[in-house]
Specification:
Layout lengths: L1 E4 L11 H11 L3 E4 L17 E5 L10 E5 L14 H4 L7 H17 L2 H20 L3 E3 L9 E6 L4 H10 L19 H5 L4 H4 L2 E5 L6 H19 L1
Parallel strand pairs: 1-2, 2-3
Antiparallel strand pairs: 3-4, 5-6, 6-7
Helix pairs in contact: 4-8, 5-8
């Protein structure tokens, strides 16, 4: 069994799933890919060696509390529990019909927004990072390289991330110290630590993200606030 994340939720860095899938296919290994952070960000194809992939509706502006799991045709799967014929007798219980319909509609709308939304989010993210690099000293991007278009993890050297997040929140700028799933937690990110980043810099790192509805005006407003707050904390 191989379990891999297509996109790291904290840095946005993408794994080479095609390469992993090729190995899984050659070795006849079940490969499950967590693609929650990918759906809605860019177009993609499911590699031949991928056995199963998981997705979540809320990541593309669909209803919360509903997900989807893809299985390659012919995959044998035993149910975790029993009791009803729903979902091909693999997951019994009353189905969340409103969630299912909402998720399906959100996926359908992707044809309208992508790939234009991908380009727009990347332009916003690049503008955000470039401006911060030009206006602030001693910052760096954690995980530069092949990334999804919407995520930016930035180290503001010498700035306590917890203090930064509190002040940003007061000004209406939402960010986190790690993945969105870990928002509110101030534990050091194991992702950044495993990347070899100094613990002091991990304590100074904050994650930002944009969505397809974010505007340049909103980004510029956030930039002014972030730059002001960082300078205040450093003074």
């Amino acid at each position: 069994l191989i379990i891999a994340s297509f996109v790291n939720a904290e840095t946005g860095v993408k794994a080479d799933i095609a390469k992993i899938a090729k190995i899984a296919e050659e070795k006849d290994i079940f490969l499950f890919v967590d693609a929650v952070a990918l759906l809605g960000k860019e177009e993609f194809v499911i590699s031949k060696g991928v056995t199963s992939m998981g997705f979540s509706s809320h990541k593309l502006h669909g209803p919360q509390g509903i997900g989807m799991c893809y299985f390659k045709e012919g995959t044998k799967m035993s149910p975790l529990f029993f009791g009803g014929p729903q979902e091909f007798e693999k997951r019994p219980g009353t189905q969340n019909l409103r969630g299912i319909v909402g998720f399906a509609k959100a996926v359908e709308l992707l044809n309208k927004y992508l790939p234009k939304a991908t380009e727009n989010m990347q332009n916003l993210r690049d503008h955000f990072e470039t401006t911060l690099k030009n206006e602030l000293k001693d910052i760096h991007i954690n995980g530069e390289g092949p990334r999804v278009c919407n995520t930016s993890n930035i180290c503001f050297k010498g700035v306590d991330a917890e203090s930064l997040l509190i002040l940003l929140d007061r000004e209406g700028v939402l960010a986190s110290h790690g993945s969105a799933c870990a928002s509110g937690s101030m534990e050091l990110s194991r992702v950044l630590l495993n990347m070899g980043i100094d613990p002091k810099d991990v304590r100074s790192s904050v994650r930002f993200s944009v969505c397809r509805n974010t505007t340049f005006e909103e980004i510029d407003k956030a930039l002014k606030i972030i730059i002001s707050v960082v300078n205040k904390l450093r003074s």
